[in-house]
Design brief:
The protein is α+β, with helices and mostly antiparallel strands and 154 residues long. It contains five helices and seven strands, in the order αβααββαβββαβ. The chain has helices spanning 2-19, 33-40, 42-59, 83-100, 129-145; strands at residues 23-30, 65-68, 73-79, 104-106, 109-111, 115-122, 151-153. Strands 2-3-1-6-7 form a five-stranded mixed sheet.
Length: 154
Amino acid sequence: TQGLIQDLLPRELSRARRFKLDLSLLHIEIDDFAALSEEFGPTLGTILLKEVGAILASSVRTIDFAARISSAQFLLLLTETDRMGAYHLADRIRQQVEEFYLERRVDGRPFSVSISAGVASFPADAQSATDLLRRAREAWFNARTRGPNRVAIT
């Protein structure tokens, strides 16, 4: 995780700058993860992390990078992807997660899972790795404050 943030992001940003390429970052969080884990138990939390992680991993190309950065938060680094391409990918992922968890139950009790995501891109939104991270997080926060199951652009 730290390798993505400390090493890979600055290196890919430098490459994008040198070759005049787009680079996008998605900040994603599983909505209400703590409440779901509390209500249904930590085993469900572990399963959710694996399942959502698998959805994220299957959604990126081999030239992209995905990492879990905290309990229920992930970063996706999308090389050669502009802001709108990143937004569309984030929205497809949001829909996949929503559909994957339709009509799921634990001990007969229904539950649903969704994600919120923020999108930031170089060069449109930020010129440095630190700013790209900050802008993606701000966009995620904006999505989250509008309600669960949202995607926002900086």
